[in-house]
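Dear colleagues,

As part of the handover before I leave the project, I'm documenting each prediction I ran so the next person doesn't have to rerun anything. This entry is a single chain, and its sequence is reproduced below.
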Amino acid sequence: MGIRRLERREWRGFCIYASRVLIGKHVEMQVLSLQFGSQVGARRVPLFGMAYDPASDVLELLFGDELDHLIRAPRELYVDEGSLGIVSLQIVDSDGIRQIVTLHDPLLLASPDNSRGR
């Protein structure tokens, strides 16, 4: 499948779709800019949703622990899709700052065996 650039008219519908299918995925977000270099914005936090408001021109990412990441005046939105679905997103704002969101399935740990010692 690969990387594709979404047209602005697709953003709102994509955010609604992504909020349904990506809920519970864990996110790592990296913020890249020439001025500040590379910074980690979030590490292994659950994604609760995405929203784009064309009236205010803000794209919002909702993470676990009540974290929000607002991207004001986004200019480009790219989606990287693999055989198992969406792998990552890249949002570029009006200042050329890139927010790269990499999605992971949460680690599933085996439940403790409660029958021991009986």
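DSSP finds one helix and eight strands in the chain. Residues 8-21 form the longest helix (14 residues).

All the best with the project,
I.
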